[in-house]
Amino acid sequence: MLLEEPYIYRLPMENTKSILITGATGFIGSYVCRQMVQLGYDVHITKRMTSRTSLIDLVKDKITMHEVSLTDIKALDEIVAQVDVIIHCAAIITIQPHTKDQLFDLNVGATRDLVNLALHNNIDHFVFLSSVAALGVPKKDVTLDESHGWDDMDTHGDYGKSKYRAELEVRRAEAEGLNVTILNPALVLGAGFWNSGTPSIFKKLDGLMPFMPMGSNGFVDVRDIANGVANAVLNPNAYGHRIILSGHNASLKEAFNMIRASLNRKPVNRFLDKSNAWFFIFLDFLKSVFTRSQRVLTKGAVKTMSSKKKYSNAVSKEILKLDYRPLSTTIQDTVDSYRVSNREGIQYGILSFD
Q1: Buried b (16+ CB within 10 A) or exposed e, 269-295
Q2: Which H or E run includes 346?
Q3: In sequence order, which residues have a C-beta less than 8 Å from that of residue 31 and are 6 or more positions away?
Q4: In this structure, are residues 160 and 184 in contact, taking their beta carbons and an 8 Å threshold?
Q5: How many Cα atoms sit within 13 Å of 226 on the Cβ side?
């Protein structure tokens, strides 16, 4: 199936904007970075000394890299003073209980500092990459939209709580005069580092899979996220909005078995449920103890994978003019990239915007 060219707000050549992207060496941030370069922006990024730049190597000579910690306020202030727009992608996504403090320090603390610097330097627009996790969990079978309210129930994971509190910092800055847009991606699929983040799903599904989660979620192509960001940056109609980015709703079993089919693996029909979850959680715990590896299954992770969530993308289509790629296209493109990586012996893949 041929896709029409995605609608993108094109940058007037005589009015080049400078943009700062945090998290640009990561999964989502790298696609945002490449898209912004392709559209002609003067792109600045922040990176840690230890950050791998493999995902943006193709555009390294077209961007300005600032090796700085997001906790270094003085250095960040000097960088923010050079740009017109901030796209804040940097975040920690983890289910590890011992990283909770680090999770809130970056996801909330760094966001607080950045919006304060944006206010101080009269930034034109602050675009914040949040998550649908910040919308909370539905109490019944409903399709969540941007109006869904948050409650402080213990059923929310730490990641969702951190993103919600970060959104509060963005809204506080908005009340103080900053133009903001909050984007809430669903489960993002695409090529990246195959051992981390959602790209690792493809590697896991290429191996032994004893069960499938019972839940459902929204899914979105990482390239559509980058297009959504691009269409928000110069779009005054996006100011003040919270916008869900979700191309398709599907059960995890359906989506994951689509991936396994593309990998020429047999489908998995056994569910992870209350009757067997404790056993697999215990096995995962033992594995983490004896191999010193990170936990994959925790009670919180099982609860998240078992919840049934659906998301509306009406606002993103109306305001950002997004035309989402089919889920089957995203999966096949990513599997093709994964196979190339395996064949060439590299640890990451990159999807083209073409």
Answers
A1: eebbeeeebeeebeebeeebeeeeeeb
A2: none
A3: 190, 222, 223, 225, 226, 351
A4: no
A5: 27
Q: Which element (helix H / strand E) includes 288?
A: helix 277-291
Q: What is the DSSP string of 6-34?
A: PP--PPPTTSPPEEEEETTTSHHHHHHHH
**Do 239 and 18 form a contact (C-beta atoms < 8 A)?**
no
Residues 19, 44 contacting (CB under 8 angstroms): yes
In terms of Cα–Cα distance, which of 182, 186, 132 is closest to 156? 132
Tens-digit pLDDT profile for residues 34-54: 999 999 999 999 998 889 999
Q: Which residue has the tokens 């005054």?
A: 236
Could you tell me which residues come within 8 angstroms of residue 344 by beta carbon, excluding any fewer than 6 positions away? none
Report if pTM > 0.90: no
pLDDT tens column, 103-113:
888 899 999 99
User: Which residue ranges form the domains of the chain, and what is each CATH number?
Assistant: 18-190+218-249+309-325 (3.40.50.720)
For 20, residues 6+ apart whose C-beta sits below 8 A from its C-beta are: 44, 45, 46, 79, 80, 82, 83, 85, 86, 87
| 131 against 152, higher pLDDT | 131
Coil/strand/helix, residue 271: strand
- Structure token pair of residue 270: 């056994």
71 token code pair: 């906790």
What are the Cα distances from residue 103, in Å, to 97, 133, 152, 206, 257?
A: 10, 14, 18, 29, 31
Give the pLDDT confidence of 236-278 residue by residue, as tens digits: 999 999 999 999 999 989 999 999 999 999 988 776 665 555 4
Q: Is 122 left (phi over 0), alpha (psi -120 to 50) or beta?
A: left
Which pair of structure tokens corresponds to residue 344?
């060439």
